[in-house]
Input
Amino acid sequence: MEKKQARMRRARRTRAKIAELKVVRLAVHRSNSHIYAQIFSGCGTQVLAAASTAEPELRKQIPNGGNVDAAKAVGKLIAERAKAKGIEQVAFDRSGFYYHGRVKALAEAAREGGLKF
Output
């Protein structure tokens, strides 16, 4: 099994469980140069909040979007935006990525920012 196929298989299992529960979901996507976070509605059709290292305001602060410090900044920003929309409880969807490094840093920063998952 290829690397991407294995990741997508892990993601499918997680998303199936979250869809069954119909809860708000914090989805993370990681590339070599950026990290992205989106909060989806319970039905999964609407993006309620989003943050990424590709945004111009974050790029001014952080020159490299592919490291742990950048992930922490995105985690804090997504937590702020979620709190502004009145979202406090989410399900964490790591999109099949292992809970390690940048994904872990983003999750911990979002928890520190006030999100519960």
In short: Residues 3-112 form a domain with the Nucleotidyltransferase; domain 5 fold (CATH 3.30.420.100).
